[in-house]
């Protein structure tokens, strides 16, 4: 199958398993997938395990290739990972950092083609005005956008983006989701985004994967799987899924519910 298959994935830290025997429905190429769930349920752990940056067992297949036993360096040719932390400030120009990201995992493009590809990417992301500015002179949101360009320039088969909109204002949030969706479709890649903004996920993503303390809570078309009951189980909130005037689903979060007390075993 062209796309991503994850079966029986177990990952954690030391002896503590965070993800236990996790299987996802097949995620076909061209899909934009929202990875959602409460703080600490293992979204980043899953992204890092898929990137090969975290010890894990289980079966991972990308475009029909079993990559379960490939290390991070081997996977880097097909997979690009954008961590939750913003790119470090450096005296390099934004353009140079994107060029360097491509050198780390060569795309095989001739220098002139590569320059053209980077210029196009800066244009698609509306980042031309930042290209010749030093990274340590950019704002947090601007650095987050350059970090995204560093990942996209590699044209990966699987994009793993950990909260790529966390530092961005409303316009740039939309710009990121629109661009990643467009590029994912054009290149037939899969993009897996850990994201807390459930309404952005609803608006743009083809699939939703909801993790909870006990593993996978739901997976499927966002509009079909999200309801009040799932919001309660996933986040411990009272909430509603309603339709806006344009027909899109929207989550309205009403109130945090008390955390259920565990029964005292004694
Ligand atoms: N380096 C680490 N060593 C030990 N435990 C860790 C480490 N990183 C994360 N954890 C634990 O693993 C669990 C899952 O963390 P993870 O960062 O994957 O969650 P998350 O769903 O991405 O959370 P958030 O939404 O807050 O970013 C948490 O209980 C966390 O405390």
TrEMBL record:
Keyword line: ATP-binding, Cell membrane, Ion transport, Iron, Iron transport, Membrane, Nucleotide-binding, Transport
Ribosomal protein as UniProt keyword: no
Ranges in coiled-coil conformation: none
Location in the cell: Cell membrane
UniProt-listed PROSITE patterns: ABC_TRANSPORTER_1, ABC_TRANSPORTER_2
A GO biological-process term: iron ion transport
Annotated GO CC locations: plasma membrane
Domain ABC transporter residues, every copy: 4-238
GO MF annotation, one: ATP hydrolysis activity
Record membrane topology: Peripheral membrane protein
PANTHER family listed in its UniProt record: ABC-TYPE COBALAMIN_FE3+-SIDEROPHORES TRANSPORT SYSTEM, ATPASE COMPONENT, IRON(3+)-HYDROXAMATE IMPORT ATP-BINDING PROTEIN FHUC
Protein's name in the database: ABC transporter ATP-binding protein
Organism: Stutzerimonas kirkiae
């Amino acid at each position: 199958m062209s796309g991503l298959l994850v079966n029986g994935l177990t990952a954690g830290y030391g002896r503590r398993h965070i993800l236990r025997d996790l299987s996802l429905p097949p995620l076909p190429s061209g899909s934009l997938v929202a990875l959602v769930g409460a703080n600490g349920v293992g979204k980043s752990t899953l992204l890092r395990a898929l990137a090969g940056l975290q010890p894990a067992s289980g079966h991972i297949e990308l475009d029909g290739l079993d990559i379960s036993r490939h290390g991070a360096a081997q996977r880097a040719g097909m997979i690009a990972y954008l961590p939750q932390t913003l790119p470090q400030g450096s005296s390099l120009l934004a353009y140079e950092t994107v060029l360097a990201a491509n050198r780390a995992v060569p795309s095989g493009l001739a220098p002139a083609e590569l320059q053209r590809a980077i210029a196009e990417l800066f244009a698609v992301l509306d980042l031309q005005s930042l290209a010749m500015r030093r990274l340590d002179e950019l704002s947090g949101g601007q650095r987050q956008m350059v970090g995204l360009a560093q990942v996209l320039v590699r044209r990966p088969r699987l994009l793993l983006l950990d909260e790529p909109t966390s530092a961005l204002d409303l316009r740039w949030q939309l710009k990121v989701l629109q661009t990643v969706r467009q590029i994912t479709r054009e290149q037939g890649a899969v993009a897996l985004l850990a994201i807390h903004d459930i309404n952005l996920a609803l608006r743009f993503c083809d699939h939703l994967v909801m993790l909870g303390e006990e593993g996978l809570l739901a997976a499927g078309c966002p509009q079909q799987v999200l309801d009040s009951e799932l919001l309660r189980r996933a986040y411990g909130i009272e909430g509603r899924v309603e339709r806006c005037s344009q027909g899109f689903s929207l989550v309205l979060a009403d109130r945090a519910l008390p955390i259920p007390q565990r029964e005292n075993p004694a």
